[in-house]
Amino acid sequence: AFSVLFNILLARKLPLIEAIVLVIHVFAFFGIFVTLWVLSPRADAKAVFTQFSDGGGWNSIGGSTLVGILAGVLPLLGADAAVHMSEELHDASRTLPRSMIMTTLFNGAFGWIMVITYCFCIGNLEEVITSPTGQPFMQVFYNTTQSVSSATAVASILVVMIAFSNVTMVSTSSRQLFAFARDHAVPFSPWFSEVPAGWDVPINAILTTFLISSLLSLINIGSAVALNSITSLATTGLLSSYMVSIGCMIWRRCTKSPLLPSKFSLGRLGLAINIVSEAFLVVTFVLAFMPGNPNPTALQMNWSILIYGAVALSSLVYYVFHGTHRYEGPVAYVRRLEQ
């Protein structure tokens, strides 16, 4: 509700708030980083960098590592979120690519440093995983500070960051729904693409985003497995979109087709970067459907492949029977604006 109200009533303040949150993000990182290193009992460096465990029972450290690769990939997904706001940015074709690269580099570096710190300061792994709080990171904070109030204060920083991250997610999700609706790519497109006079934001798309998120959260009451399977669709969906986009770039580069005009270029390394990226995405996409252990029960099974297949099939059927007659796409829209 907070994210929805913010996106409707304070949308114009989003750049300012995001800048403030960025400052909090940087200071919070160093605050937590220093707290963990100063107060936590530290593990031996040899144990951190050379000892591995096969927690999933795959009988292979390499296999277990591959299955768990999503834990390292997930924090780096979503760098394209700003693209969905590009129509509201100045000089987006120049600013967006650079901001995406810088965001990934800085957050990737921060994440890598924090992972190493966490490994040194995590303490008893079994105690942390089975924490009564239900959140291992909170148990680590408590073990570090030995104080409920201090651990709560540190954890509250993350809660604030997550809350404002959710504001951004609502912004990008609603703009994406609005853009698809404007191109007649989803059912009820006229309603989703409506922008009330004087508001300058797609209120219907924002409210729909809120409604769907609220309904999804209710699934957790009945089955956490079902919720995890549905929410995992976001991961595989993002990976799919990256694969298609980069695949198109590889095709155009290999066939010597002219690329669209752009103020940003990868230069001569463009094709190599695209190929390496595509290869990594394909492997990660396949591994995203793997269960956590080799012999899962119905509750342990990763059902995301079923959800993904159902959504992909239903979307294809909708496009064949309806979308082909109405969908125009962003290229046609831009051409109309240029006329």
Tag the structure with descriptive keywords.
single chain; 339 residues; mainly alpha; 15 helices
Q: Please, could you describe this protein's structure?
A:
With 339 residues, the protein is mainly α. It folds into two domains: 1-41 and 78-167 and 186-209, no CATH class; 222-339, no CATH class. The chain contains 15 helices and no strands. The chain has helices spanning 2-9, 14-39, 45-50, 61-67, 70-73, 92-121, 125-129, 136-145, 148-182, 189-192, 203-222, 224-254, 270-287, 304-326, 329-338. It is globular. The chain starts with a helix and ends with a helix. The model has no long low-confidence stretch (mean pLDDT 85). It comes from Fusarium oxysporum (Fusarium vascular wilt). Its main location: membrane. GO terms for molecular function: transmembrane transporter activity. One of its GO terms (cellular component) is membrane.
